[in-house]
Write a structure and sequence with these properties.
8 strands, eight-stranded mixed β-sheet, about 35% helix, Rossmann fold, about 290 residues, alpha/beta, 10 helices
């Protein structure tokens, strides 16, 4: 391919998305973008202890076929500079700073786990910025047992270390006949990108994120009736990190929201059932 034609080529494979940075508010944010430009971008909000390399290409790529997709490391995470804030609300403000620096005044959000907390805090303070909201593997402020995430996480990191496996195999998937192969397949998909991989999340950043999650879990319940955006909620039926009961809870409280619960699946249900979930997410964004 001639170099001067390269700008016409739309990248739709996450493994090929160029690594970029943008500086705003004294912070250099690491991000990647792919898919056709123009239209409302879908900004992905990632989970605890995760960087750009933690997004499943089987979720990103189908969305990027018809949408401008942006993934990013929030302040102090992975390749982004600065210190991780110790509240979800401050993380949301940093995300807004990043989004506005890119020049967007309207986005769709795809969020998972901790990213879903940040997305809810963002929608609460900046409702006009968000057109559609996808909340997966997550729960509301003050949600039951969210403040216990740290204990579960540390236990499974220990279990994973002892078995030389990825903690996500324990945290995101059931340890059974359907869950174990799904876990291995997911972890392997995260290795498909070989060029310009992201910077690992530091232990300090991880611990600060856990503090923020504990505060979110112990905070007063949010008024979810204020979320008027079309909202899609998804999880597995056996989430050990963010209790599955919180998904129907959010569904009841967010008017007109849609709910998908995958049977015999954990926190990473959307990754285990990516072949079913990705087309539904695309249809939701396209409606």
């Amino acid at each position: 391919m001639n170099a001067h034609h390269s700008n016409d080529t739309v990248i739709t494979a996450y493994k090929d998305a160029p690594a970029r940075t943008i500086t705003a508010g004294g912070v250099s944010y690491a991000y990647r973008e792919l898919g056709p430009k123009g239209g409302i971008p879908v900004v992905f909000f990632v989970h605890l202890a995760a960087n750009l390399d933690n997004w499943d290409p089987r979720i990103v790529d189908p969305i990027a076929r018809g949408h401008h997709v942006i993934t990013f490391d929030n302040r102090g995470v992975g390749g982004s500079s600065g210190q991780v804030p110790d509240t979800i609300e401050a993380m949301a403000e940093d995300a807004v700073t990043f989004i506005r620096a890119l020049g967007f005044d309207k986005i769709d959000i795809f969020s998972f786990s901790l990213g879903g907390f940040v997305a809810q805090a963002l929608v609460d303070k900046h409702p006009g910025l968000v057109r559609k909201l996808i909340l997966t593997g997550t729960g509301p402020a003050g949600g039951k047992d969210i403040d216990k995430v740290a204990g579960v996480t540390y236990l499974d990191i220990l279990r994973a270390t002892l078995t030389r496996s990825d903690p996500k195999e324990f945290l995101f998937f059931n340890r059974n006949r359907s869950g174990k192969p799904a876990a291995r397949a997911f972890v392997n998909r995260l290795k498909e990108r070989t060029a310009s991989r992201d910077v690992p999340v530091t232990l300090k950043a991880f611990r600060t994120q856990l503090q923020a999650i504990a505060k979110w879990g112990r905070s007063a319940p949010a008024d979810l009736s204020r979320i008027t955006q079309p909202t899609l909620i998804a999880n597995g039926d056996n989430d050990r990190m963010v209790p599955s009961v919180l998904s129907p809870d959010m569904h009841r409280r967010i008017k007109g929201s849609e709910l998908i619960i995958y049977p015999d699946a954990g926190h990473g249900g959307i990754f285990q059932f990516h072949d079913r979930f990705a087309p539904l997410a695309v249809a939701f964004l396209d409606r």
